[in-house]
Specification:
Among the domains are: 1-191, Sandwich (Immunoglobulin-like), CATH 2.60.40; 308-449, Neutral Protease Domain 2 (Neutral Protease, domain 2, Orthogonal Bundle), CATH 1.10.390; 455-555, Aminopeptidase N, middle-beta domain (Immunoglobulin-like, Sandwich), CATH 2.60.40.1840. The protein has 27 helices and 33 strands. Helices cover 41% and strands 20% of the residues. It is of the alpha+beta class and 890 residues long. The structure holds diaminopropanoic acid (DPP) and zinc ion. Diaminopropanoic acid (DPP) binds next to β21 and α2. Belongs to the peptidase M1 family. Residues 452-556 form the Peptidase M1 alanyl aminopeptidase Ig-like fold domain.
């Protein structure tokens, strides 16, 4: 496998204007007739046509209806004797493939007796020979033929123009997509499906048909997805003036899917996990994820499909922007400032627990990478979530209206094109010529080219006599693979100052005519800068990086007193939450780095516990916010703060903190439970789901406290709640409380849960995941995981199921995975190898579980390296896994 470099990009030697595809669908042998109209790209020197293909059986190639000579070069079909000159010519290729044997779930595959496709990034070449690159955009006409009884529904992109009967019980459907598209947006679906339908009229007065297709029996779980789709259509028109450009927009759910969902033009294909929900089977988190993923895929229709990527190095052009859009969508739907802040905190938590480690590890890469071996490995939190932060910073620098203007210019310039991240940034800047973004654009774009999480070091100096406050800001960024030195970034720093009582202080720089109140954005561009504020009446507490205005680590030596002030009074909810996290973090790190006996020396002091008591009892705070503040930093986040990681010590300290918080705040937890246990008729809105989240945390804490005291009342109540709950959120939270607290009632509850939901695959995923992710008590989790893998419901070939057991253990349960006997790593290596033979994309994700092995303390470090080396020593690894383990060992 060789690396592909961004610098090597050249335009395609041929354009494909039209594609006519005819499929004879059969699980074991599907026949594909591909008739294309091509022409030479006059801008490129004449050369052979090289078409990509993978695992195809080639039967025939015709040029302008005549047989022609061709040769194979690896996976490419090479045609050298094509008509010369600028005229278009026809190329007809006839191939067959075997969808039933396609366990990679890329290209055309069978799931539950239906056909689905996944073509992003390079799956179309598994369907037919093609110029499988996003800058080749063509018009598609697709005819599907299949047995009518087995495959009554036949779908592809665009509009249905014809359908009818064929002989032998077969039928056909013909679809025409009115928009040109790159082949990664091609899709087809065939099977026994039913649809929820909704007709809508847009603001512009156009009528559209929306459909959500699922297997018969799942129709009662499609209402939320449809509502989310309607909300998405309305939002994109209202916020960005972007209408739905198709008469018909379809979503189809499949239970076998590598990713979350896919934005194929007019025919989105979704993992069932992000479509199916009703209150009996889905949690509030599921409802919220469905809303954002439906939004995300829908928003791609403009940011991704109408304007697509020139090459896959530009992936964040569509993904960072579309994540930003789905985040804004969810925030706008959430409504209240508090609910918006909750969403922001959740998003930042993902960034910090997943992207920051990626940026500090062996797979670190810029938002726009310079090279890759396997593009599937670059669908990362850096491309998606950090990419979204980069777009968010642009909006901060040009303002919300300025950003909307920038988007408008972007579409005016580039609609129908395949473009680059530069083109996007240029459009936003050009629409805002007076902005800091326009002034600083080349430097700002370092966010696209430099990997690594910058550190922002801040320190403050108050001069009482001069009534000045000097804030020094210094930035740095650690080396990442291939990038030893970094130039300074453009960092928008949202700032406010508080006095010791928590009142906002006016902000006034020396050269300002007057003071400002509230939050101001200061744009840091140098390695070091100082801000001197004048007319400052008392020593301020700085509230830095409000709303997390840049994806950086902020170092500021806050005192406890300052943090308590921010926690109690900051007008910025994000920094209130952050202050609480910093208080917990400082205590956790001290205990982790010390060697105290945790049974003797409490990790948490009264100052912290009192502050948390006050938060819990504060009637002005929303339950959702309280739940976030009262949730301790994760083990993964704690590990990232340390140079040398002892996962067992981290786990022990965090568990001790949890127990202490549970015991010391029992009265308040009981009150929180009583106040929030009944949220009335189920609605997945932010207020009531916040209340359920807080009630769930309270119940867990009360069961944890009971474990300590031996009390049986709260576990009994949790069991009762588990049995009586009127919705999955409450039921699952009660079950989790028993599992997390390690109570003996967990076992009967788990078996009852399985019996209740044995026919609901997504609920059974939760059942597996909860057990594989449970806090380890004396090493019990790994044997339990091995046992789960022998359960009749376990199936390694189904990505959701594999993730629910193996990933929940290896990637999401550090305290159970990092065992001093190395058995967790042995298990990991075996599963990576086993999965790689089935589905390399999923295997490579699992391979990333040991990304941060170099930080581990002994004996974990050596054992982890040995496990990675064992995987790397395997001769026939996929490119996907090979790239991950090679980089890990480098
Ligand atoms: N493009 C898909 C998404 O992020 C993933 N392949 O929506
Ligand atoms: Zn996307």
């Amino acid at each position: 496998a060789t690396a592909i470099h961004r610098a090597d990009y050249t335009a395609p030697a041929y354009w494909i204007d039209t594609v006519e595809l005819v499929f004879d669908l059969d699980p074991a042998k599907t026949r594909v007739l591909n008739k294309m109209r091509l022409r030479r790209n006059g801008d490129v020197a004449p050369q052979a046509l090289r078409l990509d293909g993978e695992e195809l059986n080639l039967a025939r190639v015709l040029v302008n209806g005549q047989g022609t000579s061709f040769k194979m070069d690896g996976n490419q079909l090479v045609l050298e004797n094509l008509p010369e000159g600028p005229d278009a010519f026809d190329l007809e290729i006839f191939t067959t493939c075997n969808p039933a044997k396609n366990t990679k779930l890329m290209g055309l595959y069978v799931s539950n007796d239906s056909f689905f496709t996944q073509c992003e990034a390079e799956g179309f070449r598994r369907i037919t020979y093609f110029l499988d690159r996003p800058d080749v955009m063509a018009s598609y006409t697709v005819t599907l033929r299949a047995d009518k009884a087995k495959y009554p529904v036949l779908l592809s992109n665009g509009n249905l123009v014809e359908e009818g009967e064929l002989e032998d019980g077969r039928h056909f459907a013909k679809w025409v997509d009115p928009h040109k598209k790159p082949c990664y947006l091609f899709a087809l679906v065939a099977g026994q499906l039913v649809a929820r339908e909704q007709r809508i009229r847009s603001r512009a007065g156009k009528d559209h048909l929306l459909q959500v297709f699922v297997r018969p029996g799942d129709l009662d779980k499609t209402e939320h997805a449809m509502n989310s789709l309607m909300a998405s259509v309305a939002w994109d028109e209202a916020r960005f003036g972007l209408p739905l450009d198709l008469e018909r927009f379809m979503i189809v759910a499949t239970s076998d899917f590598n990713m979350g969902a896919m934005e194929n033009k007019g025919l989105n294909i979704f993992n069932t996990k992000y479509v199916l929900a009703n209150q009996a089977t889905a949690t509030d988190a599921d409802f919220s994820n469905i809303e954002s993923v439906v939004g995300h895929e829908y928003f791609h229709n403009w940011t991704g499909n109408r304007v697509t990527c020139q090459d896959w190095f530009q992936l964040s052009l569509k993904e960072g922007l579309t994540v930003f859009r789905d985040q804004e969508f969810s925030q706008d739907l959430a409504g209240s400032p508090s609910a918006r802040a909750v969403k922001r905190i959740e998003d930042v938590r993902v960034l910090r627990t997943a992207q920051f480690p990626e940026d500090a590890g062996p797979m670190a890469h810029p938002v726009r990478p310079d090279s890759y071996i396997e593009i599937n490995n670059f669908y990362t939190v850096t491309i998606y979530e950090k990419g979204a932060e980069v777009v968010r910073m642009m909006q901060t620098l040009v303002g919300r209206d300025g950003f909307a203007q920038g988007m408008k210019l972007y579409f005016e310039r580039h609609d129908g094109q395949a473009v680059t991240c530069d083109d996007f940034a240029q459009a936003i800047a050009d629409a805002n010529p007076q902005s800091d973004l326009a002034r600083l654009l080349p430097q700002f774009k370092r966010w696209y080219s430099q990997a690594g999480t910058p550190r922002l070091h801040a320190s403050g100096q108050y001069d009482a006599a001069a009534r000045t406050y000097t804030l020094s800001l210094t930035q740095s960024c650690a080396p990442t693979p291939g990038q030893a030195l970094k130039d300074p970034f453009v960092i928008p720093v949202n700032l406010g100052l508080l006095d010791a009582q928590g009142q906002a202080l006016p902000l006034q720089l020396a050269h300002w005519a007057q003071a400002e109140t509230g939050t101001r954005t200061f744009v840091l561009t140098e390695a070091s800068e100082t801000l001197t504020f004048v007319n400052v009446d008392s020593a301020p507490v700085p509230s830095i990086l409000r709303d997390f205005s840049a994806p950086v680590v902020l170092d500021y030596a806050y005192t406890d007193t300052e943090l308590l002030t921010l926690l109690a009074h900051d007008s910025d909810p994000f920094n209130r939450w952050e202050a609480g996290q910093r208080l917990a973090l400082a205590r956790a790190l001290k205990a982790i780095q010390g060697d105290s006996d945790l049974a003797q020396t409490p990790v948490l002091d009264d100052a912290y516990l009192d502050a948390m008591r006050q938060v819990l009892a504060d009637p002005t705070l929303d339950a959702a916010f309280k739940e976030l503040v009262l949730t301790l930093p994760s083990e993964t986040y704690l590990a990232e703060q340390l140079d040398v990681v002892d996962p067992q010590r981290i786990h022990a300290v965090r568990e001790a903190m949890r127990e202490q918080l549970a015991t010391a705040l029992q009265t308040q937890w009981q009150q929180a439970w009583e106040d929030n246990r009944d949220t009335g008729g189920y609605r997945p809105d932010p207020v009531s789901s916040g209340r359920r989240a807080l009630a769930g945390l309270a119940l867990t804490q009360l069961c944890v406290a009971a474990r300590r005291s031996g009390d049986t009342v709260w576990p009994g109540k949790a069991f009762q709640r588990f049995k009586d709950a009127a919705n999955m959120t409450d039921r699952f939270n009660a079950l989790s409380a028993l599992v997390i607290s390690g109570h003996e009632l967990a076992a009967p509850a788990l078996s009852r849960f399985h019996a209740l939901f044995k026919n609901e695959a997504l609920v059974i995923d939760k059942w597996f995941s909860l057990q594989a992710g449970a806090p380890d008590h004396g090493g019990h989790v790994l044997p339990a995981v091995r046992q789960l893998m022998t359960h009749p419901d376990f199936n390694l070939r189904n990505p959701n199921r594999a993730r629910s057991v193996i990933f929940s253990y290896c990637s999401a349960n550090p305290g159970a995975f990092h065992r001093s006997d190395a058995a967790g790593y042995v298990f990991w290596a075996d599963r990576v190898i086993e999965l790689d033979a089935i589905n390399p994309q999923v295997a490579a994700r699992l391979a990333r579980a040991l990304d941060r092995w170099k930080k581990l303390a002994e004996p974990y470090r050596s054992a982890a390296r040995e496990a990675i080396a064992r995987v790397a020593a395997k001769a026939d690894l996929s490119n996907d896994v090979r790239e991950v383990v090679t980089r890990a060992l480098a």
